[in-house]
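Re: weekly structure request thread

Next one in the queue (272 aa):
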Amino acid sequence: MFRKILGAAAIAVAANSPVFAEDGAIIVQSTTSTANSGLYDHILPIFEGKTGIKANVVAVGTGQAIRNAQNCDGDVLLVHAKPAEEKFVADGYGTGRTDLMYNDFIIVGPAEDPAGVTGMTDAQAALKKIAGEGALFASRGDDSGTHKKEVSLWKDAGVDPDAGSGQWYRETGSGMGATLNAGIGMGAYVMTDRATWISFANKQDYEIAVEGDEDLFNQYGVIPVNPDKCPSVNVEAANAFSGWLLSPEGQAAIAEYKVDGQQLFFPNAPSN
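Done, posted below.
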């Protein structure tokens, strides 16, 4: 169990402030984009300094994060695949889902733009053109929130990318950073969340090719794990964390986080 041993995928983030007790800590099952962007490095010290609660973040793809939470290896779920999140709650694993923040997805590609999609604002049309040209496209292929969104866009575009698997369509089975590295290495287009792209250091000659489509909207939600399903949940600390994230103070902390002067996440929790 992660509660006993936070494996290699875990990112333990703790402030220097005192904590209530080790068994008072929480495990946050999280999508990778929030961790890779550096958001937790910014907000958790604020939360921990205020409450004394230590938060341990397990950063994996959204699908894996949900499965981990269903296995009771977490107290709070913070991911970005709303239909899967709503099912998690409907199946009794979460006490309730609340919108937390948003940004957007983008498609990046090499400067030479082999498919001629740079400047397009219609994601489905761009994907159809990439497939039609047989231009390389690197997919996470890992059931993450980003992958789930990509799959839905291909479906809406009327394209079955699996038909090109191993040819123009390359599935990495990896996280966002690793997929960007692989895609750039092979000269492939990649769909990524904007926060990860802004924070990503190995851009080389890559540029944002496709952006601005409302279908690329990327909503994040927060869900406390239900103690009726998982008696080990630290209910008080989990509710304190989710409540703080949704509070004016937590929302302000999210909005304040910037990289190179660019805001990465835009808070949109319902007004308290």
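The radius of gyration is 19 Å. Residues 39-51 form the longest helix (13 residues).
Next request, please.
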